[in-house]
From TrEMBL:
Residues 257-276 have a biased composition (Gly residues). InterPro entries: Iso_Racemase_Enz_sf, MaiA/AMDase. Residues 251-314 are annotated as: Disordered. This is Decarboxylase. It comes from Streptomyces endophytica. Pfam families: Amdase. Signal peptide: none annotated. Residues 301-314 have a biased composition (Pro residues).
Length: 314
């Protein structure tokens, strides 16, 4: 059979990704990537340490980054990103810049990190006061707030889960509960931290409910990496990716839900038969992650730091 008419595979741009050993959301990263871009992932070596400041330091050591970058350079990516929030904010602004310099030197390729991409994204949407959601313990969440403060960003409210493992198992509804608890007072945007926390489908729902841009760790990482090579991240109704969406739902004249079709009187998409079509919030009703005994905690902005308090029941 003659297949010469196919012309061969389409040319691809390459994005190299260095992820921590416990990263479990490869598929989520791909959802922001256009068809003419390929992701090439590698992981840091396993260490028997739970999610903590110690682990953040271990998975961001320059020797570890050097080996990972050299492995990725075998497939000639146009940019390399370090996809770990805590690993890239644990050393503050100076530590993040040193990581980028070490990766660029190891591979002679432009390099960035999730935490650096976060500050870049906040500048893009002109946000200086933000609410923060994390799956981390208090000490790791404190470190994120310190990093943001160095970058000129004020945290107006925050909520966290207190997890030290299995972060990728957190359901969307827990993320939504934390977001509602964190967004109190005046904030320009919400940031959902940790590249191992699922966020893709929840972003449009939260932006519509909270009436503000919602950024997540994986989103800003892919947005910055793709922008660095002249490509654009894809995603339904996300303010960071679509300037029109930054002006809110009222600006979306003629907007149709993903997949096309009319909207219901309540604003949701209709199925071909006229009934409500499944939307991202339908995922919130899924079963919770199996209990592992991890401590939970949520800290409203005015609560004392030593008393985070429990999350609202799900």
């Amino acid at each position: 059979m003659d297949v010469s008419f196919l012309g061969g595979p389409q040319p691809q741009l390459g994005v190299g990704v260095v992820a921590p050993f416990d990263f479990a959301l490869d598929r989520e990263l791909w959802r922001w990537v256009p068809d003419d871009v390929s992701l090439h992932l590698t992981r840091t070596p396993f260490v028997p340490v739970e999610v903590s400041l110690d682990l953040a330091r271990l998975v961001s050591e320059h020797e570890t980054l050097d080996a990972a970058v050299q492995a990725l350079c075998a497939v000639s990516p146009q940019v390399i990103c370090y996809a770990c929030t805590s690993g890239s904010f644990v050393g503050g602004l100076a530590g993040e810049r040193a990581m980028c310099a070490a990766m660029a030197q190891a591979g002679d390729v432009p390099s960035l990190t999730t935490s650096g991409a976060l500050l870049e994204a906040l500048r893009e949407i002109d946000a200086r006061r933000i609410a923060v959601v994390t799956p981390y313990t208090k000490s790791v969440t404190d470190s994120l707030e310190d990093y943001l403060g160095e970058g000129g960003i004020t945290v107006t409210g925050r909520a966290y889960l207190g997890l030290t493992r299995h972060i990728w198992k957190v359901p969307y509804r827990d993320v939504v509960d934390m977001a509602r608890a964190a967004v109190v007072g005046s904030a320009d945007a919400l940031f959902i931290s940790c590249t191992n926390l699922p966020t893709y489908d929840v972003i449009p729902q939260l932006e519509a409910e909270l009436r503000m841009p919602v950024l997540s760790a994986n989103q800003v990482t892919m947005w910055a990496a793709l922008r660095a090579i002249g490509a654009r991240a894809v995603g339904p109704y996300q303010a960071l990716l679509d300037p029109v969406a930054r002006r809110g739902p009222a600006a979306m004249t003629g907007w149709e839900p993903p997949g096309g079709g009319p909207l219901s009187p309540g604003g949701g998409p209709l199925s071909p038969g006229g009934g409500p079509r499944a939307t991202p919030e339908a995922a919130f009703a899924g079963p919770p992650a199996p209990p592992d005994g991890e401590p939970d905690g949520v800290e409203p902005p005015h609560a004392p730091p030593e008393d985070p308090g429990p999350l609202p029941p799900v």
